[in-house]
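Please, structure for the following, as tokens.
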Amino acid sequence: MSATASLQLQRRYTRSDPRGAFPRLPASPDIEHNRLAMFWRPLIDMTDSALAPMHVRMIAPVSGWLARPEPGRRSWFAMIAVAGLRHQVVRHAGLDRYDCREPTGLTEQLRTPRWNTLLDVIARFRDLDDGTRALLVFQLAQLSYCQYVFALTGVVRPDGDPEHDRYAYEVARVHARYPGHTDRALAVYDALAEHDADPLLALAACAQGISNAIRGAQDTSLGRSFETRGQRAAARLGDQWHSWLVISRFHRAVALLRMAERDADGMQHELHAATIANDRLTASAPEDTDALVALENSRILTESKIKAAGRAPTGETARQVRAWSQELADLDPNCPEARIIAGDGYVTTGDYAHAAVQYIRAGELGTTAGAMGYYRAGQCFDALGDRSNAINAMARCLELDGSAIEPRTYLEAHGAAPPGGDTP
């Protein structure tokens, strides 16, 4: 790296309340003119918005699939919302009347046609085929109703039937997203890794297995077991669009394993293999929702490259990392997580001013991720000697999460009173 960051960025603040405290922020009561709702509308009432983060824009097509079921219809989207994200959004948007612990709890006058479609499918859950159940599970996860998924589905184990096992895979992905449920997901991925009838599903399970073995279980030996089985599954795939998609995801997961093994060269080799598969994917993306799937894969791959450059530098120039950071921000401009990782890329190059811009943009989008964005922005401004903007960013962080300890400490140390707030 031609420019090395000296800022020891603390990526996360600690909380006085592990669950966080999300203040009710004043906002327009009219959802049509609510600033945050313009970005998060699909998550609030399933109304589509071109301004929404990429993963939230997937709600609309899946709603259409649930309204008009077709045999064999599957979702290939990768990203799943953080559990409880919808609650954070409606609190920060000042739209408390939309807050409900279960989708059935939204009052009738606030339900859109898509929301009613969702409730209708939920009511018929016992009569649904496994393919439609899988789509419903993904939709509920995108609306961040993880606990509701568990109550609805119970424990779903693979049984060798391709459609049922796809359903089990989707439920496992929700478990993987929920704190403390990694082992439940890994048990399903382990069973699916041996799937003879559907090598594509087996490879997808191996990719998920590697990621969760590293991120959730911190078990590299388990990750290597999934890698070995994934290589066998990949060898059985044909030369087709969905194969390139899952192969790219698999190599990206193996890159994470190499990072955990402190094998920087191996990590770069896997990212290169993931890029080759992604290039084939994007060059032939169908003119339908699969085009969004391809765009999503490019977005996640760019994110992986930035993370790799920050954690195990292997010769990328600062110019290259900055280019990836800008590319990520352009691909998903209204996603707070994307903006934060773009900011992290700039920090890696020592460009704290541009990093702060990305972090502030994340903060403006609300949610816990936005609070983390403001916290990192505050640190960047402090490193730049810009005390005024550092204080403002730390205060903004507390406005989004009243339980944040380090931002409060910073404000107290520099003579600024922490903001109040109506917290639950």
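DSSP finds 19 helices and no strands in the chain. The radius of gyration is 21 Å.
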